[in-house]
Task: structure prediction
Amino acid sequence: MTHPPGYPQRIVCLTEETTETLYLLEEDWRIVGISGFTVRPPRARKEKPRVSAFTSARIGRIIDLQPDLVLGFSDLQADIAAELVRAGIEVHVFNHRSVAETLRMIRTLGGMIGCEARTQLLVEQLTRGLDEVRQRGAALPRRPRVYFEEWDEPQISGIRWVSELIELAGGEDCFPELAVQALGKNRIIADPTEVVRRAPDIILGSWCGKKFQPHEVVARPGWSDVPAVRDGFVREIKSPLILQPGPAALTDGVKAIQAVIEEWAARTVTA
Result:
């Protein structure tokens, strides 16, 4: 296979979503380094050297790999990006927070490597999948109120793409006004009893970097009266499925959310 000249051929991905995208595009041969948090696809961990965490990176190791492009994500990787730029390395930091911006990230990445046609097919495939999710969600007899918890101490509600996927899947985000806040510190729920007042039918937990503990949630003072707690709808969505703004969230992540919503809907219809 011949590859067109003039495009990056040695790429370091500091987060998982760009790694997964390059694998889906069958352009993984370009990847020379990945994040240590990468789990999708599973073979990436076996094939590629791990050179970074999320807010830290092995700068010397990255420089040794002689990348012609490093891909990062968000303000949290700004210091890593600055250090690499000072070392003369080309860096692109994505900052996408919504479903539409995630699809744009995929298109942009495809353009950066000269792979527009295959990227368009991938985006169309992802869009069709989201349309199917939307149709299933719209067919539900009732829309449950959903509280998504990204962290427990302090309690942080879901980011924008998670909120949008909940709505697509047939739910209503309990904290839509917080979802638009890009930074986690701005999505902190200062008063935990506010969750009780908003009475979610479903509680979804995905604690970034540690296992969700439903028993800790149901034991919170005053939470026993929350419909989700009372009816047994406190569930985990695995972090790699939903907390990466990439193909995972738009496929397996939203489907995992919809499975819980449909289970809730089926139970409320028969109750």
Notes: The radius of gyration is 20 Å. The CA atoms of residues 155 and 189 lie 6 Å apart. The beta strands are 11-13, 31-35, 50-52, 69-73, 91-94, 145-152, 155-157, 172-173, 202-205, 234-236.
